[in-house]
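[[Per-residue structure]]
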Amino acid sequence: MRISFRKLFFACVILGGTAYGVTILRSSHGIASFSEKRHQIEQLERENEALQREIATKQNYLSNLQQNPDELKLEIERRLKLVPKGSKQFILQDGTRVDVPADAARP
């Protein structure tokens, strides 16, 4: 029952490597952190896709405004709350807005 020095050394290397591997995998930089980072990456990719869709929608809206001057004028009036001359604007309490032309406002 003689154990050679090589076999003993090889067994120690295997045991030490296994212990080191288990220690590294259970540390703060182990498997748990990789799965957490993967989850964060997936979440950021979803946010990025949503932002890309929002950018595309806004670019489409801007190009539509550039191509249609009447719609641009209406959007400017809506955002600046301008009322065309000769018309009245009633603001209701529930927040909805009713535009009444000048002809319909007079009895």
About this structure: The longest strand covers residues 88-91. The chain has a mean pLDDT of 83.
